[in-house]
Amino acid sequence: MSLKNVWRGVALLAAMTMLLAACTPAATETAAPEPTVEPTAAPPEPTAEPEQPLTFGMLLVGPYNDHGWSQAHYEAGLYVEENIPGATMVYLDKVNPADRPGTTPAQLAEDLVAQGAQLVIFNSDDMKDGATEFATKYPDIPVIHASGDVAWADGQNFLDLGNMVNVMPRMEDTKHIAGCAAALTTETGKIGYLGPLINDETRRLAASAYLGARYCWTEVLGNDPADLEFKVTWIGFWFNIPGFTSDPTQVADDFYNSGYDVVISGIDTTEALVQARAATEAGNVVYNVAYDFEQGCDEAPEVCLGVAYFNWRPFYLRYIQAYIDGTFAPAFEWLGPDWTNINNLDTSYAGFERSQALSQEAGTQLDGFIAELAGGLNLWSGPLNLQDGTAYLADGEVGTEQQVWYLPQLLEGMEGQSVSE
User: Fold this and answer.
1) pTM listed for this prediction
2) Which of 2, 117, 368, 416 is most deeply packed, by most CB within 10 A?
3) Residues 6+ apart with CB under 8 A from 366
4) What is the pLDDT of residues 193-228, one digit of tens each?
């Protein structure tokens, strides 16, 4: 189901919610217990404690403790608090049309400002319109939007806003690694990809996993590319919204019950991992590659090959420090792993944490693949065709930043929808 359909359905819930609001007590907030450039070598040294405490706000699309995307951002906020004396985070989680019908991210950002936020982070591509609206309305309040391209001068949606920063780890690199781990492990040659909604970001990440899988299937294992099946099933949003998205638990089960012995997750939550454990307990041999959060395998490490994860810590620390220093400026950054140590949380914007289900042999092969990527291997090179057979990159042609970012379809060799219905 497309995001538009989710919003249409949620509109019905919004009307019911407004009728009930008059007689329902107000809910309380959840309480907390690359253009590509080389990554920085180390985070900046914190300054002395500011004369007045700094408060920064964060809007999270899902629960702050979702073991996935939103928790990765939340923990990056804690990292800022730990590394900048006097910094305090205020946040609202579950900022999505199902959990907060009748409100917009821009309105909720105003709520954070009312709580003292001097800078606001919008943590989802789904919040692009809200982040832009807020940044336009409040030009003196710095805005960091995780994903998005409004600040990209060479992008398709550039707006000259003096207070907007777009940041995104180059997850394409570690999705290559996720796909390779899947290909090195599958016994059936059938790899499933559990996808969220369909947009430029999710197409290019699914395609990146496929490219990594295809390379390791053919170049490392020496298999026939025709024997590799790679199927993408989209649920319709970043995580399950009962009644409006496909159930990710059911989608994962459908994969595991039809011969797909490795499922790569592309959603914010861990259903594919949980169902891999259930299928294994029922006597099947299946695996999952988790997503988003460096501890994403912890629920079931025995069936998890590893997790491709985002690390927002260096981004947020650097830009909040820049605000303190008076040097905050518009920017677009799409930054990849620190290849000297992709799991260094101080310096690497994307990582891959392997787990116990990855065999020793596959681990050695994966090390070799990672070394190739670190040495300059670029899988976004031709010949590459789009899913409908249209030539996308000619033989020997290397994809531009724009061609990768704005991938219009899945790639030839991938099964699944390329656009929302």
Assistant:
1) 0.88
2) 117
3) 177, 180, 181, 184, 216, 354, 358
4) 999 999 999 999 999 999 999 999 999 999 999 999
